[in-house]
Amino acid sequence: MAQHDRPGGGTDRSIRPVDARFAIVGANRSVLHAASWLIEAGAAVSGAESIRTAAKAEQTPLAVLVAGDAVDLNLADAIGVPVIVLWDFEVGQPGVGAFASAVSGVSSVIGAHDGAPGILPAHVPEQWTGIFGANLALGLILRRSDPTAERPARIDVSAADVLRSFAEQNSGNHAGVPYGWRRNGLTAVEHGGVFPQGFFRCLDGHIAVQARSRQDWAAILNALGNPRWSQEKDMQNPFRLSEDDSRILPLFQAELDKRSMHELLDAAIATGAPMAPVLTPSEAATWDVFRPGFADPEGRLNLPFVVKSARD
Predict the structure, then answer these.
(1) How far apart are CA 110 and CA 70, in angstroms?
(2) Which domain does 68 fall in, by range?
(3) What pTM, to 2 d.p., does this model score?
(4) Domain CATH code at residue 193
(5) How many CB atoms lie within 10 A of CB 212?
(6) CA-to-CA dists, residue 223 to 66, 133, 176, 181, 186, angstroms
(7) Distant-in-sequence, close-in-space partners of 65: CB < 8 Å, separation ≥ 6
(8) In angstroms, rounded to a whole number, what is the distance separating the alpha carbons of residues 128 and 265?
């Protein structure tokens, strides 16, 4: 996938269309999101009334993607074509992504400190499940060229399992103790293992910063003009800094307090630092930071990038 940046306009991403055919049986949010991504990838996607009908189509699909809580799965293991079953909730149980947020533990860390648990917005659990399903389907293309490669008969993907994996990834601390994921205000507990991670005050608002590596931390320091304290050896390891931020956090905050959101964004673009201003919807509409068409006339948001077809 190629990327083409344009200032103020987001990112274009071009992808070479895949030569593959998939069938969709049933309809839940997860399988419909999967279908939309397969279509974006250039695959041929068609609907079928049943798993049997899909498998016996004139042009055999590379895989059949099924809405698990919407169709009869009795034939899913014995049709000779891989079946990818997507569940909006749990494997074998009807439901929605909001339920998955709850049973996975993700809801427990969403919301005000003293308020009720929340859920992931915008049907994120189902969207995430659909992305997994589409990736699994596209992965079968790699095996198509090898007639001896074993192909799976059935794969189940549920929003609850996807979110459990997410929760487990986030809940451990530097010592591997799973107590650390909790409602912690504007910053991640122990910065998620790499300093800094969270929302931080700046001169005229807040800035989101998410360092995930030494390179990210070096870029952030560069964006801040490499303050004198950053030359100290103890200040150059973001993994160690995340374990105890009592010294680094006041120094880091003092640098942010000197700069506006615009200044920090310009510095981030210049250095590649992973930080961006926190904007309200009205502010976002006036900043030239999103691509044209990112919001439709009703205010609904589209993808932050445009997927284009790249052909030889």
Answers:
(1) 29
(2) 2-169
(3) 0.81
(4) 3.30.1540.10
(5) 13
(6) 47, 38, 32, 29, 21
(7) 22, 23, 24, 25, 31, 34, 35, 38, 83, 84, 86, 133, 137
(8) 28
For 306, other C-beta atoms within 10 Å of its C-beta total 17
Q: In whole angstroms, what is the distance from residue 211 CA to residue 213 CA?
A: 6
Query: Does 300 map to a domain?
Result: no
Number of residues written out for the chain: 312
- Considering the domain boundaries, does residue 288 fall inside one? no
Both 33 and 144 in one domain: the answer is yes
Q: Where is 256: in which H helix or E strand?
A: helix 248-257
Q: How far, in whole angstroms, is CA 109 from its chain's centroid?
A: 18
How many C-alpha atoms does 1 have within 13 Å on its Cβ side? 13
In a domain, 291, yes or no: no
Are 102 and 17 members of one domain?
yes
Whether 214 is covered by a domain: the verdict is yes
Pair (28, 131) in one structural domain: yes
Q: How far apart are CA 265 and CA 121, in angstroms?
A: 26
Q: Is the dihedral of CA 249, 255, 260, 262 positive or negative?
A: negative
Helix (H, G, I), strand (E, B) or coil at 286: helix
Who contacts 307 (Cβ-Cβ below 8 Å, separation ≥6)?
A: 13, 14, 15, 40
pLDDT digits (tens, 9 = 90+) for 129-166: 999 999 999 999 988 878 788 888 899 999 999 999 98
- The total of structural domains in the chain comes to 2
Bond preceding residue 61 cis, omega within 30 of 0: no
Rounded CA separation 251/74 (Å): 61
pLDDT digits over 163-197, tens only? 999 888 777 666 665 566 788 889 988 888 899 99
